[in-house]
UniProtKB/TrEMBL annotation:
Residues 595-619 have a biased composition (Basic and acidic residues). This is Na/Pi cotransporter family protein. Residues 379-406 form a coiled coil. GO terms for biological process: sodium-dependent phosphate transport.
Length: 629
């Protein structure tokens, strides 16, 4: 196999992969968000999910793309793991359609109608129409339709290039002997897995197998194990897409792998056991591109028919393999509290809601603490954990908001209505605390990736401020969970101090920037942190005010906040003074030393200049005296 043949084969593979990607991406653009909406809405039964997964994958030509979308839905909480299983099974069937489309590239003819139906003619017509749409029709979706046609033409040309490159190999005895090695099922499966894992596309691997089949050297005995291995290898891009997702996202990706793995194991045992007993006569049958497309489809459909009755068992298995922690179980228990049957009994529904909001508050606090730790000890696992828990906090707000709105439509006493209103107000503030945790984590990530650090002064100031933030968050969550009015009253004076500190720190940082102690890039990060810190304190204040206001007859957070800030009683002022002493940022000021050094250098410089001037004047006087003499 010469270098020219290798290059020709690789160029064919490249064109094939690019054409397939262009066609699939353009199909998704034409469909817009409809594919995602269809996947999300029409999955209330396994059969519907299976059919849907088959159709969508046949359209976008990629089981991996379909599954990656499903992983995203499950990760966001929009879809359950059980709903995803049917779609993934359907995606395994839908991806086999590509093999049948590729069979068109082997249509050939020398004259008449056969010539009109040849691959070269079809590809040329499609390419011409595609380039006209792409170049001259700028209006959507026609330009995207042009891309679909161009992708199809490139895909076909890539297949022809691959076929042309490997065609001479049918006369090569070494190549024929290499392929006979794949008749060993174990070796064939390994080759199929490895090849597809590298290409990250089952369709591409099947296409290359079809191209090799025109040499006449691929038998059924060699094609079957490779086909079984291709399905397992195609799980690689899906597994990669699950990195950074929550546990349900990882479970969904694992389902894709398990489907093909179980199919490979089951049919390997059944087929080769029966073959050992009866010796199938078709094992040495030479495969054509159509035969390979048929084998791929039959294998995938047979696998799904065997696995479909065990969807519930597969769900239990992935939950067993990826276990929930105690923290995960607590979160799920919070969601289970919001039982719709309790809505007809407001006291019970309010009690359940209180426990769920308590869980939300505690999770928001934990995520903020993780974000603060990330600033001094960054790791990707901690960063991903914060993003994962933020999705969970969003889910809390969604479920609690829906539940409380439904509850507010029922007949309640004024006290119950007030309690429900308090929850509706506070869940949005707890959700915003989670958002600020994510913002802080992104600042930490940027500092880590760009190897930037704050000056000693800035680090000290942020540490003091973070301690104040930890206290205000603790006060807020504890007062809410324990319904402690005395603790809630301590929040507002601390919020005021944090606001003053943030403004003071901004001025100090501007001074450091002017003195050259900090650079502009870290200055942006410093200001981002201060902005988030100030808003965290504001949201804590909102929650505390809601707790305090519940004790009065008129629920108006804004009016109450104004009155608290305007009429500062002795308790408020005492608390403020205590916080002011506790979080004094003047205790450590390296910039003051730097200013002294700077001033000392400036004074020395001025003295030197004066000395130089005086010595210069003395020399001039001496010269004048010499001239007079």
């Amino acid at each position: 196999m010469g270098i020219t043949m290798v290059l020709s084969l690789l160029s064919g593979v490249a064109l094939f992969l690019y054409g397939m990607a262009l066609m699939g991406d353009s199909l998704k653009k034409v469909a817009g968000n409809k594919l995602e909406l269809i996947l999300y809405k029409l999955t209330n039964s396994p059969i519907k999910g299976l059919l849907l997964g088959t159709v969508v994958t046949a359209i976008i030509q990629s089981s991996s793309a379909t599954t990656v979308m499903v992983v995203g839905f499950v990760n966001s909480g929009m879809m359950k793991v059980a709903q995803a299983i049917g779609i993934i099974m359907g995606a395994n069937i839908g991806t086999s359609i590509t093999g049948w489309i590729l069979c068109l590239s082997y249509i050939d003819g020398s004259s008449g109608i056969a010539q009109l139906l040849s691959t070269a003619t079809i590809s040329a017509i499609v390419a011409i129409i595609g380039i006209i749409f792409r170049t001259f029709v700028k209006k959507k979706p026609y330009s995207d339709i042009g891309d679909i046609m161009l992708g199809f033409a490139i895909l076909m040309f890539g297949m022809q290039t691959m076929s042309g490159a490997v065609s001479p190999l049918k006369e090569n005895p070494h190549f024929v002997s290499l392929l006979t090695m794949f008749k060993n099922p174990f070796m064939g499966i390994l080759v199929g897995i490895a090849f597809t894992a590298v290409l990250q596309s089952a369709s591409a691997s099947v296409g290359i197998l079809q191209a090799l089949s025109i040499t006449g050297s691929i038998t059924f005995a060699a094609a079957l194990p490779i086909t079984m291995g291709i399905g397992v290898g195609a799980a690689c891009p899906v597994l990669l897409s699950s990195i950074g997702t929550n546990k349900n996202g990882k479970r969904t990706a694992l389902i894709y792998l398990l489907n093909d793995l179980f199919g490979m194991i089951f049919w390997s045992i059944v087929f080769y056991s029966v073959n050992a007993a009866v010796h199938f006569t078709f094992m040495d049958m030479v495969m054509s591109p159509v035969n390979i497309a048929l084998l791929n489809s039959v294998f995938r459909i047979a696998t799904i028919l065997i696995l479909a009755p065990f969807i519930s068992k597969i769900e239990k298995l992935v939950f067993f393999l990826i276990k929930d922690t105690d923290e995960d179980n607590e979160e799920q228990a919070d969601f289970d509290l919001l039982e719709e049957r309790f809505l007809d009994y407001p006291p019970l529904a309010i009690s359940q809601s209180q426990m769920a909001v308590n869980g939300m508050a505690k999770n928001a606090r934990k995520n903020l603490m993780r974000a603060f730790e990330l600033l001094t000890d960054f790791s990707d696992s901690k960063f991903n954990k914060i993003q994962e828990k933020e999705n969970m906090i969003d889910k809390y707000e969604d479920k609690l908001g829906t539940y409380l709105m439904q509850l507010s439509m029922h007949d309640m006493t004024p006290e119950q209505a007030k309690q429900t209103s308090k929850f509706l107000h506070t869940i949005s503030d707890f959700e915003r605390l989670g958002d600020h945790a994510v913002n802080i984590s992104r600042v930490a990530q940027e500092l880590h990736e760009k190897s930037r650090t704050f000056s000693e002064s800035a680090t000290y100031e942020l540490n003091v401020l973070e301690k104040a933030l930890v206290e205000i968050v603790d006060l807020t969550v504890n007062s809410f969970v324990d319904e402690d009015l005395e603790t809630a009253a301590k929040v507002e004076p601390l919020r005021e101090l944090i606001g003053i500190l943030c403004n003071d720190l901004k001025l100090r940082h501007i001074k450091r920037l002017r003195n050259g102690q900090c650079d502009l890039n870290t200055g942006f990060a410093f200001n981002d942190l201060l902005t988030n810190y100030e808003r965290i304190a504001a949201h804590c204040s909102n929650v505390a005010v809601a707790i305090l206001e519940l004790d009065s007859s008129n629920f108006d957070i804004h009016e109450y906040t104004k009155s608290v800030r305007k009429l500062k009683d002795e308790t408020y002022l005492t608390a403020f003074e205590e916080y002011e002493k506790k979080y004094d940022i003047n205790g450590y000021q390296p910039e003051a030393e730097a200013d002294k050094k700077f001033s000392a250098k400036a004074k020395d410089s001025e003295k030197n200049k004066d000395n130089e001037k005086s010595s210069g004047k003395k020399k001039d006087k001496d010269k004048k005296k010499d001239k007079k003499k």
